[in-house]
Write a structure and sequence with these properties.
The complex is a heterodimer. By secondary structure, chain A is α/β, with parallel strands linked by helices. Chain A folds into two domains: about 210 residues, 3-Layer(aba) Sandwich (Rossmann fold), CATH 3.40.50; about 110 residues, Rossmann fold. Chain A is built from twelve helices and 15 strands. In chain A, strand 4, helix 4 and strand 5 form a beta-alpha-beta unit. In chain A, helix 1 crosses helix 2, helix 3 packs parallel to helix 4 and helix 9 crosses helix 12. The longest helix of chain A has 21 residues. Chain B has one domain: Thiamin diphosphate (ThDP)-binding fold, Pyr/PP domains (Rossmann fold, 3-Layer(aba) Sandwich). Chain B is built from nine helices and seven strands, in the order αββαβααβααβαβααβ. Chain B has a seven-stranded mixed sheet with strand order 2-1-3-4-6-5-7, with helices on both faces. The chains are: A alpha/beta, B alpha/beta. The interface between A and B is large, with 40 and 35 residues. Strand 9 of chain A pairs parallel with strand 2 of chain B, so a sheet runs across the interface.
Chain lengths: ~350, ~250
């Protein structure tokens, strides 16, 4: 298959077109603007709609409108912009609409910085808006995975009628790697619920998240959570690397997992039994994979580009059965393999 | 026997939740009459606001979407851009359109989004119990202006049609009222024109309808209609503020 050298953001945008995305609504923000720029150039010829909105708030509501009519819709932003979108994301979830949202994370809080960060983990997995709901959250760690996950995100979003997020970071968005575009095999789903004009052939459809009767609202939320249970059962993914005999298992996602893997390899060269478990989906969190790893590992070391957010889920996944240590850099600082190796050494062989 | 009057087909056969004397029902009906007369119910998608007409999705028989507060023009943009051959309208109140949704409204207009906006101006936030709206008149008593709206403290009411008429993307900006039979007839004509503009791809069309809120104004329905005439129309003059094709180069395409 043909391999192309592409920037993460551009590869993701191309993959979205190939996945059958029909429209993109966005607002400029660093470090994700290449997605907009690529689609502005390429989308119209590919039969898609590109529109630069007046705000992140408008962009996500344009996505809501387009998704309501049954077409595949996408928006992308970076951390501060995702905060603005959270209102619309809650409405999209409450209206059971599929869409894909890209967050190329940068340092925060506030205006923060424009360098890579993973400080939006809590936001993406726990609180992307008001109310009881979840998003599918994917954490690619290469340009190739940016491509693969965006295709999967569209499919699962449609299948479960819910928003999906690609939680990338400035490092993945900006770096170039060779990439191949897989053939799209999935068929577009029928969407009999769509509000695209009933053509006098059916009753009118309503896309709505308002339920004034508490018992009716409760039931709609419970029904949604039943779908979430199905997703947790079937779609939690993780990559396990040299964990079988590992005494210490490093865990990291996204770009950080690449650095962590280097550190694990360096540790192995020095005779330290280190391994890596990398969540590919952050929601659903790969609980079973962590539990399996915890059967043999003595200790976990969670590495993040934040002050420690995923670590809570790691502890919960293994029910605190093994110690979970933390190492993180934040504000746009990327940890070095040597820093992680030093941490590994701190916890291995009783040399603490 | 010849039928001389009936409920429009595109209007659902359900009881509306609006207060006695509220003019939302008239405006709903006029929109439905236009949809029926143009024969476009099957090709129309409506977008509801947050406000008194939040549940209008149950009252129109075309496909309907319920938007977040103020975001209806953005939602409608998403619908229209991906379904350019369908008719898309929003139905919004004054708080929704002229306060929290100002950016969405202005930018939908300036882009010349080929949609219809039905803007119901009753100078108050009705659903939440009658607070000051961006359109509340100077001196008007509301829950949050208990001593009357003082422009020195709360600023002046916004004249939406006049503002949007300055934008190139606006095809139609017309203010009408539903306090008398002649005015109601004029309102229907304006709504029809707005939908025809959309059919002819002329750009953004807004029909501002001066409406009453007897409940929150503390007036009888009849006195409320009188207030509309005596106090609202002098501040919000009726008329056409803009009527031209925003995209003349597209004509004949």
């Amino acid at each position: 298959m043909e391999r192309n050298l592409m920037k993460g953001n551009e590869a993701l945008a191309e993959a979205a077109i190939r996945a059958g995305c029909k429209c993109f609504f966005g607002y400029p923000i660093t470090p994700q603007t290449e997605i907009s720029a690529y689609l502005a150039k390429r989308f119209e010829a590919a039969g898609g709609v590109f529109l630069q909105a007046e705000s992140e708030i408008a962009a996500i509501n344009m996505v809501l409108g387009a998704a309501s009519t049954g077409v595949r819709a996408m928006t992308s932003s970076s951390s501060p912009g995702i905060s603005l979108k959270s209102e619309g994301i809650s409405y999209i979830a409450g209206s059971d609409l599929p869409c894909v949202i890209i967050n190329v994370q940068r340092g925060g809080p506030g205006l923060g910085g424009i360098q890579p960060s993973q400080a939006d983990y809590w936001q993406a997995t726990k609180a992307l808006g008001h109310g009881d709901f979840q998003l599918l959250v994917f954490a690619p760690n290469s340009v190739q995975e940016m491509v693969d996950t965006v295709i999967k995100a569209f499919d699962l979003a449609d299948q479960y009628r819910m928003p999906a997020m690609i939680l990338a970071d400035g490092l993945l968005g900006q770096m170039m790697e060779p990439v191949t575009f897989p053939e799209i095999t999935s068929k577009p789903l029928e969407k009999p619920w769509a509000t695209n004009g009933h053509g006098n052939k059916r009753e009118h459809n309503i896309i709505n998240s308002l339920y004034l009767q508490p018992d009716v609202l409760e039931k709609s939320v419970i029904d949604r959570f039943k779908r979430y249970d199905e997703i947790k059962e079937n779609h939690a993914e993780a990559e396990l690397y040299k964990t079988e005999d590992a005494e210490i298992v490093v865990t990291a996602y996204g770009a950080t997992s690449r650095v962590a893997k280097s550190a694990v390899n360096m540790a192995r060269e020095q005779g330290i039994k280190a391994g890596l478990i990398r969540p590919v989906t952050l929601w659903p969190f790969p609980v079973k994979q962590f539990q399996k790893t915890a059967e043999t590992a003595d200790k976990f070391l969670c590495v993040e580009m934040s002050m420690g957010q995923m670590i809570d889920d790691v502890k919960l996944a293994i029910n605190c059965s093994k110690p979970v240590e933390f190492y993180g850099r934040t504000g746009g600082v990327i940890p070095k393999p040597s820093e992680i190796l030093d941490e590994i050494k701190k916890y291995v062989g009783g040399a603490k | 026997m010849a039928v001389v009057f009936e409920k429009p087909k595109s209007m659902a056969d359900v009881t509306l939740h609006y207060c006695p004397g509220c003019t939302h029902g008239i405006i709903h009906r006029l929109v439905c009459e236009v949809i029926d007369e143009m024969g476009i119910e099957g090709d129309t998608i409506g977008v509801c606001p947050v406000g008194c007409s939040v549940m209008a999705y149950d009252y129109f028989n075309c496909d309907m979407i319920e938007a977040a507060h103020g975001r209806a023009p953005a939602v409608a943009t998403g619908v229209k851009r991906t379904n350019p051959d369908k008719y898309v309208f929003t139905y919004q109140g004054d708080g929704d359109l002229a306060a929290i949704g100002t950016a969405e409204t202005v930018h939908a207009a300036t882009r010349g989004e080929n949609i219809v906006v039905i803007f119901v101006n009753n100078t108050t936030y009705g659903m939440t119990g009658g607070q000051m709206a961006p359109t509340t008149l100077p001196g008007q008593v509301t829950q949050t202006t208990p001593y009357g709206r003082d422009p020195k403290l709360m600023g002046y009411p916004v004249r939406v049609c006049e503002m949007l008429a300055t934008l190139t993307g606006t095809a139609l900006a017309q203010r009408v009222a539903v306090n008398s039979v002649p005015h109601i007839r004029e309102t229907k004509k304006a709504i029809r024109k707005a939908f025809e503009n959309q059919r002819d791809k002329k750009g953004f069309s807004i029909v501002e309808v001066l409406s009453t809120c007897p409940t929150n104004w503390g007036l009888s329905p009849v006195d409320a209609l009188k207030r509309l005439e005596d106090e609202m129309i002098p501040y919000y003059p009726l008329g056409v503020f803009k009527d031209e094709n925003a995209f003349p180069e597209k004509e004949g395409e």
